[in-house]
């Protein structure tokens, strides 16, 4: 391992385990199996990977996937430097060489042809083909591929191909149980237990009306934002409006329903 590796996580991230995800991830890492984290946005997937990288003492290289992500963005490219053409590794190649955890966040967002470059890395070959250099790179034994995937966004256009998804061990995430989520919101949001638990109660109610128009419930992340605002002296109602109601929907009717739910908790 390189000294002062910027991809190492030096201090332990706060992570509250919600099931058997820690031993499962450890088992997958020991068996060198790629891992898929399934679950709604803002429920702790990224925090979990950070925590596991710290725990396993492996560097973590994260790539936020988007629809313009090309294979070369992951693998690398030749760049012109002082009239010389030099090869620069992309994040995936760096992770493969270094033995890092490579975390592809929201992988369905990436172009289908980009997703395909990870295929030879995620079966027993564990190789990365760098076509532009005519090089085939064998992955470092500690290299681990992790992807996140939100099944809630599933559509015909945006779904992972079976040939991709059947290369991963899946760990399913959801919003933590109320008691645990309250602890997370209080700790991360820096507020008292009572306010945290009121926010979590509100989130529970919002998540229940999901079917009636909201595409996704209130995430743990948004609850922490609301808590942060309360911590800054903003009233509970204003914090919930700014951090929960407004980000969740533009629909007047649903906003009214959410506003009533907030009022019930005042
Ligand atoms: P995702 O990657 O699923 O979109 P994140 O991992 O970014 O979501 O989670 C959002 C925030 O919620 C985190 O920054 C963290 O503060 C908090 N969080 C969620 N779940 C947990 C947990 N189990 N332990 C500690 N913090 C958590």
Keywords:
single chain; 266 residues; alpha/beta; Rossmann fold; 2 domains; two-stranded antiparallel sheet; 41% helix; binds adenosine-5'-diphosphate
Brief rundown of the structure:
With 266 residues, this protein is α/β, with parallel strands linked by helices. Helices cover 41% and strands 17% of the residues. The strands form three sheets. It has a five-stranded parallel β-sheet, with helices on both faces. Strands 3-4 form a two-stranded antiparallel ribbon.
Describe the structure.
This protein has 266 residues and is of the alpha/beta class. It folds into two domains: 21-172, Rossmann fold; 178-264. It has helices at residues 21-30, 45-56, 71-75, 91-98, 112-115, 162-165, 178-189, 193-208, 220-231, 236-248, 252-264; strands at residues 35-38, 60-64, 76-81, 84-89, 101-105, 127-130, 135-138, 144-149, 169-172. The strands form three sheets. Strands 2-5-8-1-9 form a five-stranded parallel beta sheet, sandwiched between helices. A two-stranded antiparallel sheet has the order 3-4. It has a two-stranded antiparallel ribbon with strand order 6-7. Strand 6 (127-130) and strand 7 (135-138) form a beta hairpin. The longest helix has 16 residues, at 193-208. It is elongated. Residues 14-16, 18, 39, 41-47, 176, 184, 188, 220-221, 224 line the site of adenosine-5'-diphosphate (ADP).
